[in-house]
Structure formats: C-alpha cells, structure tokens
Amino acid sequence: MDDFENAYAYNKELKFDQVKRILFGEWQSMRVGEQLKEIEKKNTLIVTDPNVYKFGLLNDIETSLSKFQIKYEVYDKISNEPTMENIVNAVEFARSNGKFDSVVAVGGGSVLDTSKMVASMVTNKGEPAEYLTPVEDKFKNPGLPKILIPTTGGTGSEVSNMSVVINRESMYKTWAASSNLLADTAIVDPVLNVSAPPRTTAASGMDALAHNIEGLISKEANPISDGMATKAASLIFRNLRTAYNDPSNMEARSAMSMSAMLGGMVITFPWVAGPAVLGHCLGEAFGPKYGAIHGVAVGMALPYILDFNISAAYNKIGSLARIFNIRYKGESARAVASKIPPAIIQLLEDLEMPTTLKDINFPASDIEKFGDYIFSSRQKLYDLPRFNPRRLTKENSIRLIQNMYDGTLENQVR
To answer: Which of 31-35, 110-114, 264-268, 283-287 has the lowest average pLDDT?
Structure first.
C-alpha cells in the first residue's frame, strides 16, 4: 500500500444524486435556448446581478432565447452575498408573476443559490426560512426546471444540491439541502469568467480548493470523491496563479471552471459532508460576521485546518504533496503532510489574499469567545464529529482560532 493511501470500507452504502446534464466548454452558454426548447419551456425567469448586465454577459444568452422564441424576464436585484432578503424578494417576484415555467441563473454563487431556492419555492408553499434545515429535506414538490450558468470559477453551486443563506441576525451562514435544488442543466462556459476581477478569481479559486481538499480529508470520503477532489486540487494549484495574473488565458480559465464544478460534485455527495469539514464551518461563521467574502474566509482557514488535522489525517494531507510539486524523499508521511499548509499560505500570498484573522480585522478580544462558539455550538450544525478527522475540544478550538489570528502553523517543518 502506498504511504499516503487509506483503506476504504468498500461495502458501505453509497447513495447520491447529481445534475441531470452538464454542458462544459467555451461558448456553451449560447445553447441555453436550445436546452429550454428541448423540454418545451416557453417563458423563463432570468435571475442575475447588476454586474452581469454591466459586463454584457447576458447578451449571447438573450440572443439564444430569442432564437428559439422563448419569452423571458430579467430579475437582476441579487447582491454579492445570498441573504435571506435576496431570496424572499426574488421568490415574491417569481410567485407574483405566475407565468414562469423555468428559471435560468447567470452569475456567481449568490445568484445560483438564490435561483435554486426561487425555482423550488414557486412550487412549494411557505416561506424560504422554513426550508433552511441542513439535515432535513423539506421540499415536497419538484421545483421549476432550472438551468444554472456560473460566471465565476469557485462555488460549484451549478452542480451542488445546496443553497447557502446568510442569517442577518447572527451574521452566520446556514443552508437548505435537497436533491430538489439540483439543476436540470448546468452550463459551464469558461468564457463567462474572463471579465471576473482578479480578486474575485482568487477568492473563487480558493473556495474551490477548499471544497475539494476538505472533501478529500473528510472521514466519509471514498475513491469516487477522492478522484474528483484530487484532480480538481491539482488543476487549481497549477492554474489559479495564471488565471489571477492573466485573466484572458483560456486554458487556465477552463481548468478553474472544471475544478470548481468537480468541487461542487464532491460536496454534493452526502457521505463527504455537505459543505465540507472544519474549514467551511469556520469560514462561514467568521466571514459574514467580520466582513470577509466567502472565498477569502474559507481560503484563509484552509491551511490552518489542515495543520489542525495533521495528527488524524496525515496520509490524506500528505497525498497532496505530489500535485503541489513538493519534493520529499525518505521522510515520514506526517513530515510530508506538514509541508502542505505552508504551500497553501504561499499560494494565498501569491494571490495577495489575507493569511491571518488579524488581516481581516478580527478582534483579538473575540478569539476565546469564537473558539468556544465553534466547539459548543456550530460544529453540531456541520456534524463535525462525523466528518472532521480530528476531535474538537474547547481548548484546541480556541487554540486553533489563536493560531489563525497569529499566523502560527503548529506542525510546520522548520
């Protein structure tokens, strides 16, 4: 057995759903009209945000809809984060109209997550907040057919079964999870990512890296999810710097789009952990509360949660050394694993992203309180005892937050 290979329980039950159809490649977004025509839909709601209009990313999509004589109306009031206010207003718009037979989403993760809820809430009664139960699927009826078209390469929302929502009162994230939220068609067109600002490219890329690596180290990962996660992590590590520095490089853009999509599939497998393990648990808590966008928050958390988990998952973490081009010879698996977090810190620095909680103005006075919150409350929402390799205690949770604040990697090879 390879030094970095884990044994799997091949006899455990595996059950999962995925998107019905994926169209991947340059200019595939021009086929949206054809896809709706195929399922005999005639009146669609386009959900997007103002920047998509600003950069002209709807032009070819509208042309395609008109070509196939599909009527449409555009709703473009989605903000950068998927707030409950966004969802409630969009659902009200769709319900009050009453004529839409499908939904087309064009945008980043916030747009896609909101659109999935809109398509489902049109055919299900009640308010969106009633469906935000991560461990229970409350949708009774199939939603409107939906086509999801991402304009950033990060969230993987176009192929995931989740819709993330920010709770304005607590400023923490929660989500709905259901096979009802899966797209009928995901159209992944790397051309649409070219106009994304460099900071968006960096944050989206780190979100995709976090999805895949956290899925890789999950206690309930298996060879299917590992294959996707490992390939995606390799694509990101080899292409994200290029996409950041040379936005028009289509080879790098395509690689990032592919890796984000694979990450969305990985986190949709129910045995992997839903949104992932400790990194997303942390990032989706401190990000909204302290003003760091999602990709920045989970990207910054990633090296520290790998460092935290080394004692329990050094085989899986060390397996990344090959794809990160880290040299090792005659070293223990644990020693090799300790080289991975610094490599991710270097990637963050190359992308000019924050590497510590201090960098995002997280107050030092909140370290103990936040660490206790993760241990005593939030880890239950993410079911970390089931999915995260290392057991959390109050003491190690607080120490982890302190390390993230100070920029300390406890297992770093010196």
So the answer is: 264-268
